[in-house]
Amino acid sequence: MGSANKSNTARKARIEEMRRAEQARERRNRILTIVASVVIVGGLVAGGVVLVRSQSGGDGGSDTAASSDSSAKGKFVTGKDGVKTWEGDLARNHVTKAVKYASEPPVGGDHNPVWQNCNGDVYTKKINNTNAVHSLEHGAVWVTYNAEAKKADVDALAAKVKKTPYTLMSPMDDQKDPIMLSAWGHQRTVTSAKDPDVDTFFEKFVQGKQTPEPGAACTNGLSQ
After folding, report:
1. Taking a C-beta distance cutoff of 8 angstroms, is the pair 187, 76 a contact?
2. Where does this protein have compositionally biased stretches of type Low complexity (predicted)?
3. How far apart are CA 79 and CA 83, in angstroms?
4. Domain regions of the chain by residue span
5. DSSP codes, 122-182
6. In 3D, which of 198, 208, 207 has the Cα closest to residue 178?
7. Which of these, 214, 110, 87, 105, lies nearest to 168 by C-alpha position?
8. Is the peptide bond before 196 cis (omega within 30 degrees of 0)?
9. Selection from 158, 159, 160, 171 nearest residue 124 by Cα
10. Would you say the pTM of this structure is higher than 0.85?
């Protein structure tokens, strides 16, 4: 009899222990549910704040999903050295839609959040202006050419770009001159790859004083 009582007592003890364990698990689950709910609500609130900010626009470098009819206000002024300098405002908002630029190729303005790789990158197909403008913001020089450019010049310029960090090169059929060089807020036409103005432009504007974001990356962006 005594043995049976001990067995019943032990069984009750195990059952009670199991109940306590189950209650503990339920408490933990409730706590985890509450924490998860708080995290989700916090994320929704933060997302709402970002959305409101993006819809209301912002200062340079801010993100917005709105497209721009024109992101540059001003005009080009040509200096004695032949370099055209943009006098006026060049917006620097990040946008996800197309931008109507004031020049072709553009020298600044609203641009895509992702830059075009510009660590001596040579592209054989047209690239998006909005990505290339972001590269200019990082201090890159952009070499462009159209169908009228001589193959020898294109090859020579490509070789120069490939060995020069913070530069990129791509074809651009819509530009008015065969070979053009662009930096943030600056642009010029050159006659050939041997034109001494090519070296002069590179020396002055590759990571030059005009750069809005000096030292920013030219890698880990968009590649073709």
Report:
1. yes
2. 56-74
3. 6
4. 1-56, 72-205
5. E-SS---HHHHHHHHHTT-EEEEE-TTS-HHHHHHHHHHHHTSSSEEEEE-TT-SSSEEEE
6. 198
7. 105
8. no
9. 171
10. no
- Residues 151, 157, 161, 162: what is their CA dihedral angle, to the nearest 10 degrees? 50
Class of domain 72-205: alpha beta
| List of residues 6+ apart from 43 with CB closer than 8 A | none
Between the two ends of the chain, the Cα-to-Cα distance in Å is 87
pLDDT by residue (tens digit) across 23-77?
A: 454 455 454 444 444 444 444 444 443 333 333 333 333 333 333 445 668 999 9
Tokens linked to 136 = 């200019």
Q: What is the Cα–Cα distance from 141 to 125, expressed in whole angstroms?
A: 17
Tokens standing for residue 69: 């009819």
Instruction: Tell me the sheet residues that pair with 192.
Output: none
